[in-house]
Amino acid sequence: MAGIFQRSLRLRTALRHLSPQSPQSPLSWTVTGRHTPLDLHCSFLPSTSRQFAVCSRKLHTGADRPSPAAAPDRLPFSRITQEDLAFFRKILPGRAVTDPDLLESSNVDWLKSVKGESEFTSFHLKIYFLVVIIFNSSILTSSAGSRGNTGLVGGSVPVYDEIILSTALMNNILTFDSISGILTCQAGCVLENLSLYLEDREYIMPLDLGAKGSCHIGGNVATNAGGLRLLRYGSLRGTVLGLEVVLADGRVLDCLATLRKDNTGYDLKQLFIGSEGTLGVITSVSILCPRKPKSVNVVFLGCETFEQLLKTFQLSRGMLGEILSAFEFLDSECMRLLNTHLKLRNPISDCPFYVVIETSGSDSTHDGEKLHNFLEEAMTSSLVTDGTVATEDSKIKALWSMRERVTEALTHDGFTYKYDISLPVERIYQLVTDMREHLGNRAKSVVGYGHVGDGNLHLNVTSPAKDPALLAAIEPFVYEWTASCNGSISAEHGLGLKKRNYIYYSKPSQAVALMGNIKAMLDPKGILNPYKTLPDDLK
Amino acid sequence: MAGIFQRSLRLRTALRHLSPQSPQSPLSWTVTGRHTPLDLHCSFLPSTSRQFAVCSRKLHTGADRPSPAAAPDRLPFSRITQEDLAFFRKILPGRAVTDPDLLESSNVDWLKSVKGESEFTSFHLKIYFLVVIIFNSSILTSSAGSRGNTGLVGGSVPVYDEIILSTALMNNILTFDSISGILTCQAGCVLENLSLYLEDREYIMPLDLGAKGSCHIGGNVATNAGGLRLLRYGSLRGTVLGLEVVLADGRVLDCLATLRKDNTGYDLKQLFIGSEGTLGVITSVSILCPRKPKSVNVVFLGCETFEQLLKTFQLSRGMLGEILSAFEFLDSECMRLLNTHLKLRNPISDCPFYVVIETSGSDSTHDGEKLHNFLEEAMTSSLVTDGTVATEDSKIKALWSMRERVTEALTHDGFTYKYDISLPVERIYQLVTDMREHLGNRAKSVVGYGHVGDGNLHLNVTSPAKDPALLAAIEPFVYEWTASCNGSISAEHGLGLKKRNYIYYSKPSQAVALMGNIKAMLDPKGILNPYKTLPDDLK
């Protein structure tokens, strides 16, 4: 306990030294990163004495008309001066980055749909400013060469001239307990690196997603990432056991427990899980990891109708039971894009729907028998028309890529409008069918894929280029449709910049108002990831 | 969505009619219940015009010296007048209960260690006041005949003259989706009734605990109950999908989603899970239920040392893998109490430690084989010295009762000091050994049992009668010991009245201060379950 207080004291001391400005123009921060708000954007509140730094902004939202997805006007934060920058360079030697090439990857999200841009000419205002690291006495460099932000809703890139904070070099594993399977690590650890570390120790991470090679665990937690294993291991709200968070006033909140159960007061860490960096900067994570399964099988199946696909899902839940670890789907349009753009060959005969089922268990003989019985029943009942099974690692990866690379194939098909919808599972494909009919030939492709087991549809619409008329046809149609089924307009991607104003389709105004109260309580000056998550009309 | 707003409007209207007092003396409420804060205690803020109702208080904390577990002075809430009671009776005909016999079960927790008591003579101030029900147009009666509050930290009984709100008659199941396994129900549903309902539909509740026959699901959620299935199905933070909550100002917060994934803004329901009724009154719950396993086995084993017990746990995780659903333990002292007080016979030969392992799976042949292999390995390696297996329901129940009825056996042994500790699993029994040595012959019995799989020890110390000297020897020793291992002083029981002031042993002051901010935000007048969960020194 003493350690906590000492660190907290160090932090406050550091913070006093850190602030290059007078108390009346405090720093305002936003955190973003990879699949996450985990680079910290910083702005200054108005300072009448310093007016010369003017940053204009270009936000490419793909629509000329003002859209609820467009950014609001720049808030009256102060602008960074040369004096500020000199100060940052002094306290962060080699870490205050202004090189435009290095900044590019953090200014633009990987979809290239949202871009923050400064036109300040004497020096570039975007800097990697790793304040948290100083507090922890770690050493950082700029995250040059990072593969960029993997978020899908513009939550992880600056909107105007916010300072970007990267946690990329906070990438240490702190502890791992091989009895309990509890891992603690810093926020900048790449998910895939954690997975590799754990696999050597007969454990796995409880989450897995396509962006694993570049996304950070801190970002995963800040966005409450779902992914491919949620069906089996549950959400991060259950598996994350502790967090260390830097609050907007610079205090370190130590909730980095490594206990499976703890009912001493309110569970504060839950506030930060899924808050997209708007309430605090996650710097460390402790997480409960499952044992590495001894046996993994992947099946790729084809179904004639979505109804048969759902029956196959039900059958798999009954017959595969505790070894079912994923039930994913894609439609024939996805397959066409995989063939066309990525030259991936359909491993089975053509079908309207495809399913990827993964089993993982502790006994390969038992798992094989269960799978065999399930497949026999599914074929006999004519629920599936074709299929292939993989038990070897390379073939497992090949089958998984049919599902995981759909997002990539879409980027080659044109400008993509992405929707991440939660619905009662029996309704999820109806939205794709209805959207296809609704749009007619206005769209290039309308595709559906996602996590059947979680009732989570990824609906994507492409067009040759950005198309405001198409966007107007999609929205609010898609949101109204979703709300009519009591669905969620963001199952796992979050709201970020693009979807913040659509929150009312999924949450009553009272709930949104309470979110505003929480934001005001934790970040009264609104300096953390401004313009994100919460709607503009919130007071 | 329209329904939500209508109901909210109805609520506000109802609330205006409801308040029998002027705005400057608003109602103050606390919710308690069974294993939970789910009866609502109500006090009035000071009203100079009404001074005649004086309620004195006797709080039986078992210690004459002021203890951190003792209640603070009564806060200056108003007292209920005859006019108030007449008003309540008018709007709640037959539901405003003042009969002392009926009130007894809600005034006293089931351990009989905490008692709120009014001595007002002309009528009894404790009334069942089911305000939430009115808003929902349901019909309630007093919960006479309920088996009483099952909480263990005095969180569910009034301290002074708070009004008690019972949700016992809000016991309707609202929806159940047999495809997704998502159940929505009212807060007063008894856990066992929900289990029976689901079992008919091939599902089970994701939690199970000894008090299932009387505890309410709303209380389970309000206290973030753990129980016997957490190892397999995770905590309520992952399985609870939605809540409906009545806030301190009477607004209904509708977060009753039935979606497995929803990342639209902050996850407000998490605030209320585990908040012990101090932030709002949970009125409805939606929860994700697992499939009913087709095969269940229970094994009762004996180990010579706790180290062997831990090795047995590790072995079971590897060899039983995905079918392991519980790993519980009790020591020989527990067995002695079961023999002595409940006449339960040890099903195996005498050992220092006993283990209850449950498997549940989808294939009885596979499960049987896994279990057989595991037991063979455990015997061959001399990890266990004796054991018995049950596959039939009645024998399964009999073996489980050896673990579940320890709490009951303790109540017959004398006055019980109860501690519910989270620790790194390899440390959990050391605390029992150290405590036994520390107390010497001052205690009657010092026993340890609990959830090995969750690192959760139940440490219990008995004495012939309440014994302040013994208590002084136990505390703060037990808390300091726990804090030295970064453990939690309340794994699953919560803090309630008795442990509120010990929170600093498990949480840094910054975290506690933030909890205070949350309380002030949601319940600025402090009317919900006062004197509970948060420490007295909180401003």
Give a brief rundown of this model.
2 copies of one chain form a homodimer. With 539 residues, the first copy, chain A, is an alpha+beta fold.
Characterise this structure.
The structure is a homodimer of 539-residue chains. By secondary structure, the first copy, chain A, is α+β, with helices and mostly antiparallel strands. The first copy, chain A, is 32% helix and 18% strand. Chain A has 18 helices and 14 strands. Chain A has helices spanning 2-18, 82-91, 100-107, 131-135, 191-199, 217-222, 230-233, 236-239, 269-272, 306-320, 332-342, 364-380, 393-404, 406-413, 428-439, 468-474, 477-484, 509-522, and strands at 27-33, 36-44, 173-177, 182-186, 240-246, 252-255, 281-288, 295-303, 324-331, 353-361, 386-390, 415-422, 445-451, 456-463. In chain A, strand 5 (240-246) and strand 6 form a beta hairpin. In chain A, helix 10 (306-320) packs antiparallel against helix 12 and helix 11 (332-342) packs across helix 14 (406-413). The longest helix of chain A has 17 residues, at 2-18. Chains A and B meet through helix 1, helix 8, strand 6, helix 10 and helix 12 of A and helix 1, helix 8, strand 6, helix 10 and helix 12 of B.
Number of strands of chain A: 14
The SS-based structural class of chain A is alpha+beta
Number of helices of chain A: 18
Rg of chain A, nearest Å: 24 Å
> What can be said about the biggest beta sheet of chain A?
7 strands, antiparallel
Question: Which two chains share the most extensive interface?
Answer: A-B, 94 and 95 residues
CATH architecture of the domain at 173-288 in chain A: 2-Layer Sandwich
Oligomer: homodimer
Low-confidence stretches of chain A: 1-64, 117-148
Give the integer mean of the pLDDT values of chain A: 81
Amino-to-carboxy terminus distance of chain A? 38 Å
**CATH fold category name of the domain at 173-288 in chain A:** Uridine Diphospho-n-acetylenolpyruvylglucosamine Reductase, domain 3
Strand order of the largest sheet of chain A: 11-8-10-9-13-14-12
Please give the share of residues in helix of chain A.
25-40%
Shape of chain A: globular
Strand content of chain A is: 15-25%
CATH first level of the domain at 173-288 in chain A: Alpha Beta
Organism (chains A, B): Dissostichus mawsoni (Antarctic cod)
Catalytic activity (chains A, B): (R)-malate + A = oxaloacetate + AH2
Domain FAD-binding PCMH-type (chains A, B): 148-292
Cofactor (chains A, B): FAD
